[in-house]
Every structure is written in structure tokens, then in C-alpha cells.
């Protein structure tokens, strides 16, 4: 589904070319939940952006859904993918339903059909009662669920997630991870997840690549765990 | 007080009406051009700036330099040096129609800069969001940037309108007429100070109305 072949990427930092990703090769299978884990500055978010085509490699090739990702094809290929961000990236001047409707509007999908689907997805993420709510009134977990509903509007084959739970508390994190698992199991969507949180990776992913200094250190096969989010009281009591 | 006002109206009512229509004529053209061209130029500045998504130092340098030049020349001198240009463009260097040209030029420059600043205030991550949602450049502008910057753009347009009202008062230099010219020529220079004060009060009220309207509209569209 996603394949990187000897991909290298440099950025200008302090007026010096710094290699951030160094000849990485990687293959992610269809319907897999694949994790990218590593410390701050290891290059995992850059790898994610290379996969979406937002950033172009200096060397190497990237294939998305069997097609080569280049400067022309990326605008077409990206439409079959979605991305979920740590900071939610919702438009604050639109309410919940308007944010979810946005991908459909960009593709000129008929209004009635767009609205029906948006409501179905809001129900899927448990926010049907918040249709007309303003974004600023929502909690972090609710905002991320709106972002997830928005990401599902176009039935993406791949969802890229950049630290989707970093800004959330323990309970919210569990809900979002469960939602991502449900999406994978219900729709067969491939999910590529970047996180520095080992617990998140172990809970959700089928495989994980450990990134260090722009290289893949190792790829592990995992057995996703059952999710059992605990409250703070339970966590400290158990300790 | 009322009698003085009625007396003033009897003497200068016709001229007041004419001057008001001249001001309205100049302002509406200048504001239309500011919105159409100024907004577009502001967007181009934003795109081509160093932190823009299509950085172009040459294009940005030329546009920005031109806007700075227009804004730095004292307006009354700008009006005078543009007389030959007015003749070239509309066939005359004097009158209400000629006045619309320098007023539009300064309006475009002002609003272009305000637009750039409003767009720079929008969260930079919006571009990546628009890209991952499959938006084209035009859709990024229309559905993302304009949506998030709309309150700032409305308030900037309000400020531009008030500035243009102030600038319009000196258009009498090239026969542009308007309320400011009437206040100066008939009011001050012909010792009809009541008329001058009436126009001043009228302009103060007008500015308040414009500002309040702009604030209300910006608030209506601001859901942040």
C-alpha cells in the first residue's frame, strides 16, 4: 500500500544542509496498522509527510497505492488518503458539521449526500449531538473525533496519523485509539501512525519501525493489546 | 440651533447633497478597486513572501516595494504627480472621475498590505491541512484562508474605508469636490464656520457608523 525505496531527505537548518532521512526503505501492507516510533528529531514525522507527498524526497522513490508519488501525481493520490494531526487542525470559523463536510465540498459532492454521510460519521465517532457546536467549545478528545470524522468523509484507503493522542489525557487517548482500531477493522483502512509513546504503539499497531537519526533501526511485529483505559485513581491505586 | 441648521440647509443644501454624492462616488469606486485588486495583491504577497507556499523574492520585492512607494508619498503630492497618468487613463486630470484614480491606488495599496497581514495571522498548518484534504490552490484560498482570516479581512476593510474617507477630503486639489472640499472652500475660506462644523460632525458620525458596522460584521463571522 505504501512503499519507500532508498528515500533520502535533507533540510536547511542554520543555513546548513542536514540529512533528516537517510536511504530509508519500507513497505506497509494494505489494511495494516503500522507504527513509526522514535525520539524527538528522529525523522518520523518527516517520513509521514514524505508518504503523503507534502514533502518531496531528495533521492529515492515513494509508491502510494501502487502508483509512484511525484510532483504531478501527489495531488491526485492524496485524495485517496487522509491525515490526522496532533493539533487537530480544524477550522475554528466553521462549526462541527461544516468541518466534517469540508472534504466533500472540495470534491463538489452533492450537498444532500454529503450531509447524510457527515451525520453518519459524526454518529460513528459519537458526536451526533454536537453537529452545530463551535470548535472552541469542544474538548481535545472531541476535536480529534471531529478530525477523524472529517478524515473518513472521502473513504480514504490510507490514514496518516501524526501523534494523534499526544495532546489528550489518558481516557481520551484510549477512546481515540479504539476509534482508530474500529476504523481499521470496519473499513479495512491502512493506518500509518507516528508516535513517541510506546504504549500507543503497542496497543494499536501490527508492526512498528523504530526510527533513529533518520534510519530504520529495526522493524518489530506486534500483537495489538486490548485497550483498557484507566482513570487516574485506578492507575495510582493499582501502583 | 434648529433654526441655524434650517438656515444652513436653505443656503447650502444643494451643495451639501452634491458634495455628499461626490464623496460617495469616489469612495465606492475606490473601495471596489481596493476589494478586487487589493485583496488579490494581498494574497499574491502572502503566497510569494519568504514564509509563503510559493516564495518568490523577485515578485514579492517588486510588489512590496511598489506598495511601500505608494504609501510613503504624501497623498496630496501623489494626487498631483498622478495627473498625467489620469489623463492617459481616463482622458482628464481633473474632476471627480480623475479623483477616483489616486484614491483607488492608495486604497489598493492599503488593503493589499492589510490583507497580507491578516493572512499571515492564520495558522500556518492550514496549508498542510488543505493539501491532505485534497484542496487545490484556489480551494486553499477560498475554503481555508478566507474562512479563517475573514474577520481580520473585514476589520481591515473597515479601516481602509475610513482611511479613504479621510483621503477623499483633499481631492479638491484636482477638482474632485466632495464633503472635505466643501468644508474647506465654502466653510473655512468663505467664513461659513457653521457649515464647516456641520460637515465635520457629519463625517465623525459617518466614521462611527462605518466602524460599528465593520465591528458587528466581523463579530458575526468570527466563530473562533
Oligomer: heterodimer
Radius of gyration of chain A: 18 Å
- Could you tell me the mean pLDDT of chain B? 91
For the biggest β-sheet of chain A, the strand order reads 6-7-8-3-9-10
Query: What does the overall shape of chain B look like?
Result: globular
Give the helix/strand class of chain A. alpha/beta
Order of helices and strands of chain B: HHHHHHHHH
CATH names the topology of chain B as MetI-like fold
Span of the ends, CA to CA of chain B? 47 Å
Helix content of chain A: 25-40%
Radius of gyration of chain B equals: 20 Å
Q: Please bin the fraction of helical residues of chain B.
A: over 70%
Which pair of protein chains has the largest interface, and what are the residue counts? Answer: A-B, 28 and 21 residues
Tally of helical segments of chain A? 8
Structural class of chain B: mainly alpha
Observed structural traits:
heterodimer, A: 239 residues, alpha/beta, six-stranded mixed sheet, four-stranded antiparallel sheet, B: 224 residues, mainly alpha, MetI-like fold, 9 helices
Describe the fold and architecture.
The complex is a heterodimer of chains A (239) and B (224). With 239 residues, chain A is α/β, with parallel strands linked by helices. Chain A is 35% helix and 28% strand. Chain A has eight helices and ten strands. In chain A, a hairpin with a 2-residue loop joins strand 4 (59-64) and strand 5. In chain A, helix 3 (96-106) crosses helix 4, helix 3 (96-106) runs parallel beside helix 5 (140-152) and helix 4 crosses helix 5 (140-152). The mean pLDDT of chain A is 87. With 224 residues, chain B is mostly helical. Chain B has one domain: MetI-like fold. In chain B, 82% of the residues lie in helices and 0% in strands. The longest helix of chain B is centred in the N-terminal third of the chain and has 47 residues, at 2-48. The model of chain B has no long low-confidence stretch (mean pLDDT 91). Classes of the chains: A alpha/beta (239), B mainly alpha (224). The interface between A and B is medium-sized, with 28 and 21 residues.
Amino acid at each position: 500500500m505504501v512503499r519507500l525505496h532508498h528515500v533520502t531527505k535533507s533540510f536547511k537548518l542554520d543555513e546548513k544542509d542536514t540529512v533528516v532521512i537517510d536511504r530509508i526503505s519500507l513497505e506497509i501492507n494494505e489494511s495494516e496498522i503500522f507504527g513509526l516510533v522514535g525520539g524527538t528529531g528522529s525523522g518520523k514525522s518527516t517520513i509521514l509527510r514524505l508518504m503523503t507527498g507534502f514533502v518531496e524526497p531528495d533521492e529515492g522513490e515513494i509508491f502510494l497505492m501502487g502508483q509512484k508519488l511525484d510532483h504531478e501525481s501527489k495531488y491526485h493520490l492524496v485524495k485517496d488518503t487522509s491525515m490526522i494531526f496532533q493539533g487537530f487542525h480544524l477550522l475554528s470559523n466553521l462549526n462541527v458539521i461544516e468541518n466534517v463536510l469540508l472534504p466533500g465540498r472540495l470534491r463538489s459532492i452533492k450537498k444532500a449526500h454529503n450531509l447524510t454521510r457527515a451525520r453518519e460519521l459524526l454518529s460513528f465517532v459519537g458526536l451526533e449531538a454536537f453537529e452545530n457546536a463551535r470548535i472552541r467549545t469542544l474538548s481535545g478528545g472531541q476535536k480529534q473525533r471531529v478530525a477523524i470524522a472529517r478524515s473518513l468523509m472521502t473513504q480514504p484507503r490510507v490514514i496518516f496519523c501524526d501523534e494523534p493522542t499526544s495532546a489528550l489525557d489518558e481516557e481520551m487517548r484510549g477512546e481515540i485509539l479504539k476509534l482508530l482500531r474500529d476504523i481499521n477493522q470496519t473499513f479495512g483502512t491502512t493506518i500509518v501512525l507516528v508516535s513517541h509513546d510506546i504504549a500507543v504503539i503497542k496497543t494499536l499497531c501490527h508492526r512498528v519501525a523504530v526510527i533513529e537519526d533518520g534510519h530504520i533501526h529495526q522493524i518489530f511485529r506486534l500483537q495489538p493489546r486490548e485497550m483498557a483505559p484507566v482513570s487516574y485513581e485506578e492507575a495510582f491505586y493499582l501502583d | 440651533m434648529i433654526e441655524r441648521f434650517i438656515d444652513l440647509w436653505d443656503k447650502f443644501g444643494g451643495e451639501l447633497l452634491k458634495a455628499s454624492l461626490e464623496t460617495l462616488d469616489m469612495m465606492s469606486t475606490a473601495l471596489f478597486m481596493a476589494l478586487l485588486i487589493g485583496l488579490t495583491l494581498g494574497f499574491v504577497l502572502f503566497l510569494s513572501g519568504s514564509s509563503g507556499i510559493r516564495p518568490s523574492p523577485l515578485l514579492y520585492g517588486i510588489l512590496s516595494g511598489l506598495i511601500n512607494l505608494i504609501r510613503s508619498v504624501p497623498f496630496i503630492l501623489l494626487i498631483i504627480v498622478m495627473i498625467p497618468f489620469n489623463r492617459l487613463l481616463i482622458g482628464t486630470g481633473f474632476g471627480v472621475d480623475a479623483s477616483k484614480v489616486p484614491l483607488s491606488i492608495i486604497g489598493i495599496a492599503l488593503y493589499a498590505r492589510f490583507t497580507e497581514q491578516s493572512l499571515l495571522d492564520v495558522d500556518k498548518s492550514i496549508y498542510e491541512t488543505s493539501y491532505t484534504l485534497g484542496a487545490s490552490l484556489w480551494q486553499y484560498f477560498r475554503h481555508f484562508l478566507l474562512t479563517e482570516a475573514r474577520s481580520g479581512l473585514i476589520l481591515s476593510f473597515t479601516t481602509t474605508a475610513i482611511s479613504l474617507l479621510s483621503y477623499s477630503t483633499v481631492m479638491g486639489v484636482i477638482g474632485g469636490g466632495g464633503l472635505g472640499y466643501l468644508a474647506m472652500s465654502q466653510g473655512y475660506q468663505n467664513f461659513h464656520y457653521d457649515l464647516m462644523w456641520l460637515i465635520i460632525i457629519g463625517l465623525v458620525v459617518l466614521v462611527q457608523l462605518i466602524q460599528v458596522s465593520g465591528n458587528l460584521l466581523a463579530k458575526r463571522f468570527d466563530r473562533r
